[in-house]
Amino acid sequence: MKISAPQADELTGNSWFSGHTDGVELHEAPVTVDEFDAEARCEERDELETAVFGGGLTVAGTLDLGTDVHAIYVVRGTLRARRLILGDAVLVVDGAVEVDEWLFGGVTEGLFEVAGHQAESPTGPNALLAHVRGPVVALYDRARREFVLREGGSPRTVADLVPQVRDGLDPDLREEISIAANLRARLIAGGPIF
C-alpha cells in the first residue's frame, strides 16, 4: 500500500522521506525475499524506491544496497539477511540487524542506522554494533576515517586482515577505497578476511 511521505515520517518517527518523495510503499506484514538488490529494484521502477517494512524484513540471500543508488528503506523491528552489503542507499532499522555470514560497508555515500545509532555518531560505532549480530562485521567509519572490524563480536584491526586484503593495493586509489574493494571481493568470494 502507498502512503504519503509525511505519513511515513510519522510512522517511523523521523523525517526520512519528506522532501525526497511524495509516496512511500508500506509493507505492514513481515516481508521475506530470496535476494534484495537495491540497484536492480530502482532500475526496474526507473525511480527512487522508498519503502517501510513495518513487520520486519528477512532476506534469505544477500541484501545489497548498491552504488549510485538513491533509495530509502526503513525496517521496523528486525532485519535478517544471510549477507548485508551497505551502499549508497539509506537503510534505517529501528530494532536489530542479524546476519548469518557477514555485514560489509565500504566507503559509500549511504546512511546506515540501527536503533538510532550510526557508525559515524559522536559516541562511535559501538552503540550501533550493540544491535548488530553476526560473525563478521567490516564497515568504514567516515567520521573517523577508519575501518570498524569485528569477528565473533570481538574488535579486530586492519593489521589482522589477511594479506590478500592488505597487499596489492591500487596506487591510484586512496588506501581505504582499495582496502574496501579487496574486502568486498574477498567476502563475496567466500574467503576469510582475518
The helical percent reads: 10-25%
Total strand count, please? 16
Number of helices: 5
Query: Structural class given helices, strands, pairing?
Result: alpha/beta
Order of helices and strands: EHEEEHEEEEEEEEHEEEEHH
Q: Overall 3D geometry? A: globular
Separation, N- and C-terminal Cα atoms: 44 Å
Estimate the mean pLDDT confidence.
95
Structure write-up:
The chain has helices at residues 5-12, 38-45, 126-129, 163-166, 175-189, and strands spanning 2-4, 23-27, 31-33, 36-37, 50-53, 57-64, 72-75, 78-85, 90-93, 96-105, 111-114, 117-118, 132-133, 136-141, 146-151, 154-156. It has 194 residues and is of the alpha/beta class. It is globular.
List the keywords:
about 40% strand; about 190 residues; 9-stranded mixed sheet; globular; alpha/beta; 7-stranded mixed sheet
Helix-strand layout with pairing:
Elements lengths: L1 E3 H8 L10 E5 L3 E3 L2 E2 H8 L4 E4 L3 E8 L7 E4 L2 E8 L4 E4 L2 E10 L5 E4 L2 E2 L7 H4 L2 E2 L2 E6 L4 E6 L2 E3 L6 H4 L8 H15 L5
Parallel strand pairs: 2-5, 3-6, 4-6, 5-7, 6-8, 7-9, 8-10, 9-11, 10-13, 10-14
Antiparallel strand pairs: 1-2, 11-12, 14-15, 15-16
What's a quick, concise take on this entry?
The chain is α/β, with parallel strands linked by helices and 194 residues long. It has 5 helices and 16 strands.
